[in-house]
Amino acid sequence: MAMTISAIYRYPVKGLSPEPLDQVTLSVGQGVPHDRRFALALAATQIDPEKPEWLHKSNFFMLMRDEKLAQLQTRFDERSGNFTIARSGALLLSAGITDPGGRRAIEAFFAEFLAGHPGGRPKLVEAPGHSFYDAKQRPNSTTNKYISIINLASIETVERAARVPVAPLRFRANLYFSGTPAWSELSWIGSELAIGTAHLRVVSPITRCPATSVNPATAERDLDIPKLLQSEFGHNYMGIYAEVLKGGAVATNDRLSG
C-alpha cells in the first residue's frame, strides 16, 4: 500500500485553531507558509521583532496551560489580513490582524477571554520572517522551521490502548499520512522523503507535552496522552519533524516515499 498524504494543516496563531489546506507550496528551510506566524505572548515576554530569537512555549498562551483556547474557532485570511474568532458557530470578532487597530481589538478580546489566567494581558506578536515553533534548532540542521508529520496508523494504536477515540488534531501536525505500519516513521530519522514535488529530511521525533491531553472538540483535559504513550509504548513520541531540502508543491492524496 502506497503512503499518501491524508490531510494538511497550518496554525496561523500559535495555540489557536488548525486551518485545513488542500495543498501547500513548501520552500527550502521554511515551514508551511503562515504557520505559527503569530502568537499570544505573556505580558512579561520580551520579543525583539527586528532580531527575534526562539523562545520556549511557556512564554506564550498555549493549550498546555490554557485549554480554554480550544473553545474558539479562528481563521486567518492572508490576502486581506482579516482574522475571525468564533465559538460554537457564533462570530465573536472580525479584525485585521496585520493592522494596529485590529491587533488592539484582538488583544482586548483575549484579555477578556483569558481573564484570571496566569500570564497577564496577552500581547499579539509577530516578527517578519520568524515563526513561533516549539521545536528548537536541531544538531546538523540550519533552521528550526520544520514540517511536523504524523502517521495515522500510530494514532490508531494509541486509540486502541486508550479505548476511546483520539482525534488526530490533538497533535497539531502539518501533514498527516497513511499507508505504513504504526511507529515505522520513528526509524526515518536522518532519512530523506519525497512528498509531492518537495524533498524533506527527517531530523527528529516529536516529544509530546500535556497540550495533547486537551480534547480539541470539548476543550477538556480528558486523556493523559504523554503518560499513555510512555506506559503503553515506552516513549512519548508522536510524529516526526522534517526540514525542507527542496521546495515544491504538496497536496492531499500526494504520495510520500523514502
Please explain how this structure is put together:
With 258 residues, the protein is an alpha+beta fold. The chain folds into 2 domains: 4-31 and 135-257, M1 Pyruvate Kinase, Domain 3 (Beta Barrel), CATH 2.40.33; 39-125, no CATH class. The chain is 13% helix and 30% strand. It has helices at 100-113, 152-162, 225-233; strands spanning 4-10, 19-21, 23-26, 39-41, 72-76, 82-87, 90-96, 123-125, 147-151, 175-178, 192-195, 198-207, 237-246, 248-251, 256-257. An 8-stranded mixed beta sheet has the order 2-1-10-9-13-12-11-15. A 3-stranded antiparallel beta sheet has the order 5-6-7, covered by helices on one side. The chain has a two-stranded antiparallel ribbon with strand order 3-14. The protein is globular. The two termini are 14 Å apart. The model has no long low-confidence stretch (mean pLDDT 95).
SSE layout:
Layout: E1 4-10, E2 19-21, E3 23-26, E4 39-41, E5 72-76, E6 82-87, E7 90-96, H1 100-113, E8 123-125, E9 147-151, H2 152-162, E10 175-178, E11 192-195, E12 198-207, H3 225-233, E13 237-246, E14 248-251, E15 256-257
Parallel strand pairs: 9-10
Antiparallel strand pairs: 1-2, 1-10, 3-14, 4-8, 5-6, 6-7, 9-13, 11-12, 11-15, 12-13
Q: Which features does this protein show?
A:
single chain; 258 residues; alpha+beta; M1 Pyruvate Kinase, Domain 3; eight-stranded mixed β-sheet; 3 helices; 15 strands; globular
Evaluate the radius of gyration. Answer: 18 Å
Contiguous low-pLDDT stretches (5 residues minimum) are none
The SSE order reads EEEEEEEHEEHEEEHEEE
- Overall mean pLDDT stands at 95
Which fold name corresponds to the CATH topology of the largest domain?
M1 Pyruvate Kinase, Domain 3
CATH superfamily of the largest domain: PK beta-barrel domain-like
Estimate the helix proportion, in percent.
10-25%
* Largest sheet report: 8 strands, mixed
CATH class identity of the largest domain: Mainly Beta
Number of self-contained structural domains: 2
Strand content: 25-35%
CATH architecture of the largest domain: Beta Barrel
Q: Specify the number of helices.
A: 3
Main structural class: alpha+beta
**What is the straight-line distance between the termini?**
14 Å
The side-by-side strand order for the widest beta sheet comes to 2-1-10-9-13-12-11-15
Overall geometric form? globular
